[in-house]
Amino acid sequence: MNSPTSLFCGSSCRKIYEGLQGMLGVKNNLQDGLSWTLLQRTEQPFGSYEYNNVQINSKIALACLIMNECFLSTIDLHTRANITQCIVYNRG
């Protein structure tokens, strides 16, 4: 089960994963001096954080605050889940 190939439903899913992995941490410039970067949040035991992980998790938390401000913390009526947080943190 630890083999990366067993994590995918097929070759197309594996290609998507590999494409996204290649985009991690790459700055993509947009118009008007804006940019976006695909980040991956990592969960590590307390006390074992590296500077890079702290920096990434801080950026994701800031993105969540900005998204909440822009979209007024949209709450799902059935689950009471914050949809913005679910999207930013990729929660199911």
TrEMBL record:
<dbReference type="GO" id="GO:0003714">
    <property type="term" value="F:transcription corepressor activity"/>
</dbReference>
<dbReference type="GO" id="GO:0005634">
    <property type="term" value="C:nucleus"/>
</dbReference>
<dbReference type="InterPro" id="IPR042163">
    <property type="entry name" value="PHF12"/>
</dbReference>
<protein>
    <submittedName>
        <fullName>Increased DNA methylation 1-like</fullName>
    </submittedName>
</protein>
<dbReference type="GO" id="GO:0006357">
    <property type="term" value="P:regulation of transcription by RNA polymerase II"/>
</dbReference>
